[in-house]
Amino acid sequence: MTGANMISVGTPIPNLDLLDSSGRPQRLRDQLGAGGLLVFFMRTASCPICNAHVRDLERHADELAARGVRVLLVVPERPDEAEAWRLRRGIPFPVVTGGSGTAHEEVGLTRRVFGVMRQSGTLLIDGTGIVQYALGSTLPTGAYDRTAIMRAVEALSPVDPMPDVDRETEERAPAAGSDS
């Protein structure tokens, strides 16, 4: 179930100000790959259920990469805490935190249950920056659905690694309007 105020499918993703786990500024749009970006917003890096979801993403990393989809993990901790967690767990994905406020709130994942429990969620953003899948939940068990995610990934437009190359000759096709 999508959170009441969570960003919805068909919406352009806001270009969130983020910090990577080394504390360097990042922008969400800079993380987009040609095939899209799967963003998992963890309730906290210490949440065992969120960590189980990350392990599942690790198990399916090759499958996602083969489709051109990058994975980005967003945690609410400080960058130094995020980096320690990433290193301790051997996380193969980039880990970011909110640069101004929290990235969670900027996509509508707020604190529920008396303002105490942070929501977690998953977004799949296509290569043009449009949300194609959104799932958020107060309970971390409801914030990640691999079957639905993979269905959404399969529905993305296929990535053509060499869009203007003639497959027969492997030569670059002339640009539109050129004489060659």
How much helix, percentage-wise, in residues? 10-25%
Give the helix/strand class: alpha+beta
Mean pLDDT: 83
Report the C-alpha radius of gyration, rounded. Answer: 18 Å
Poorly predicted ranges:
165-170
Number of strands: 9
Strand order of the largest sheet: 2-1-5-4-3-8-9
| Major sheet attributes | 7 strands, mixed
Task: List SSEs in N-to-C order.
Answer: EEEHHEHEHEEEEH
Euclidean distance between termini CA atoms = 54 Å
DSSP helical segment count:
5
The rough form would be described as: globular
What fraction of residues sit in β-strands?
15-25%
Ordered list of secondary-structure elements with their pairings:
Layout: E1 17-20, E2 25-27, E3 37-41, H1 48-59, H2 61-66, E4 70-74, H3 79-89, E5 95-98, H4 103-106, E6 111-112, E7 117-118, E8 120-125, E9 131-137, H5 146-155
Describe the protein.
This protein is of the alpha+beta class and about 180 residues long. The protein has five helices and nine strands. Residues about 165-170 have low confidence and may be disordered. The termini are far apart.
Descriptive labels:
180 residues; 7-stranded mixed sheet; two-stranded antiparallel ribbon; 9 strands; 21% strand
